[in-house]
Design brief:
Layout lengths: L11 E11 L2 E11 L2 E6 L8 E10 L2 E14 L3 E5 L5 H12 L8 H14 L7
Antiparallel strand pairs: 1-2, 1-4, 2-3, 3-6, 4-5, 5-6
Helix pairs in contact: 1-2
């Protein structure tokens, strides 16, 4: 395990089902934590550091599913998964999306506006949703 003093950004506990797409294969796993430009995903399989991959995170709330796919590279291989790095990963954006989906209201008219404002503010800052 890497020592925390080597990390550039603090990790935030974060649980979400996810799929890793790597070398034309898709494998199910679970995101364990996130940081600015990185995440750790519990996933099985054989991987090599610095290979390109995509991770699709799923936010589930009753019949509603929101998914976000992030391109990046495998940063390191752990015993139970991989460290993943991407300039598109922004913990504040992911936490905002998660809290919007868990907002306990029946079809609140403002939820779409909140979602658009969150995406727009983060997109304007050049993170997460860059194309």
């Amino acid at each position: 395990m890497e020592s925390s003093d080597r990390r550039k950004h603090p990790r935030v506990p974060f649980k979400a089902p996810a799929f890793l797409e790597h070398n034309a294969k898709v494998v199910y796993g679970e995101v364990r934590d996130i940081s600015l430009h990185g995440m750790y995903m519990n996933v099985r399989g054989e991987y090599t550091a610095e290979e390109e991959a995509d991770i699709s995170l799923y936010f589930l709330r009753g019949p509603v599913t929101l998914s976000v796919t992030v391109p990046g590279r495998i940063a390191r291989i752990g015993e139970d998964g991989i460290g993943f790095k991407s300039s598109h990963i922004d913990p504040l954006m992911l936490l905002s999306l998660e809290s919007l989906l868990t907002f306990d209201s029946q079809d609140s008219p403002g939820i779409l506006e909140d979602f658009i404002a969150t995406v727009s503010s983060h997109s304007a800052g050049g993170t997460f949703l860059d194309s």
